[in-house]
Structures are given as C-alpha cells and as structure tokens.
C-alpha cells in the first residue's frame, strides 16, 4: 500500500472513529460559538452604532465609516464560519482582523484588552488548519466561475 493510500485510509478511519467524530463535533461547536460572538457581541454594536463602539472608533480617529466597515467584515466572517467551503478562509480573515485589533489595542489604548484578540486568534487558527481541505474546493469553485 502506498503512503498516500495509507494516509487516506488512516484519515478516513479516524474521521469515522468515535474520537474523530467527537473532535469534529467539538470543532463545529467552537465555530458556532465564534460565529455567534462575532455576529452579536462584536459586529452588532458597530452596525447599530452603539455608543460604546462609536466612542471607541472616534477615539481611534476612524469615525463611523471605519466602525461600519469593521462591523460588516466581522459579520461576513461570522456567517462564513458556518459555510463549509468558506470556514477556513473565514477563520484566517477573522484572524487577520484580530491581528489588527491587537495592534490597535497596543498602540492606541496602551495595551488595555490586548489579550482578547490573541485569545480569539487561537481557536480561529485551529479552525483554519482543521478545515483547510475545503480551500481546494473553494479554489475549484472560483476557477469554474472565472
């Protein structure tokens, strides 16, 4: 048996094993929780121009335009985390937003709450890695439409 066939057989066996199934369910649960967080706790206050979000973006000098753009990106990422073909790309995109949030926390707010983006990046990177096989499917879809 070739190495590729052995890896494929091993991956298929682990995906159907109770442990593999439990890991998939746990990962999906984390994805749903992160999608709910980004959609409601993070994007919603920006999109409804809640005073706390508006004040923060004013303090950064980004104003309402920056607030709405970030809110839309977070909401799009939250929805994409739930779409199988987009989950890996969404996790990477949200991680990139969080790197920006980390830099802003350090530079504008003197490190206050800088740990929050770092903590959120960890499960997003796990999702991006675990769901990376969907990237090939996404690439095929994009090429077919081009």
What is the CA-atom radius of gyration, in angstroms?
18 Å
How far the N terminus sits from the C terminus, by CA atoms, comes to 38 Å
Main sheet properties: none
The portion of residues assigned to helices is over 70%
Average pLDDT across residues? 90
Low-confidence stretches: 4-13
Number of strands: 0
Please work out how many helical segments DSSP would assign.
7
Instruction: Give the number of domains.
Output: 1
Structural class: mainly alpha
Tell me the overall shape. Answer: globular
Strand/helix succession: HHHHHHH
Strand content: under 5%
Keywords: Membrane, Transmembrane, Transmembrane helix
InterPro entries: DoxX (IPR032808)
Organism: Streptomyces griseicoloratus
Subcellular location: Membrane
């Amino acid at each position: 048996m070739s190495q590729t066939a052995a890896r494929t057989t091993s991956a298929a066996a682990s995906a159907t094993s109770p442990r593999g199934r439990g890991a998939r369910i746990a990962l999906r649960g984390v994805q749903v929780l992160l999608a709910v967080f980004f959609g409601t706790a993070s994007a919603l206050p920006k999109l409804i121009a809640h005073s706390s979000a508006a004040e923060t973006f004013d303090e950064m000098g980004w104003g309402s335009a920056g607030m709405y753009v970030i809110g839309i990106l977070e909401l799009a990422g939250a929805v994409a985390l739930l779409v199988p073909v987009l989950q890996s790309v969404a996790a990477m995109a949200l991680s990139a937003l969080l790197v920006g949030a980390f830099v802003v926390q350090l530079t504008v707010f003197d490190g206050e709450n800088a740990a929050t983006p770092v903590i959120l990046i960890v499960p997003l990177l796990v999702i991006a890695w675990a769901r990376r096989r969907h990237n090939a499917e996404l690439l095929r879809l994009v090429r077919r439409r081009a």
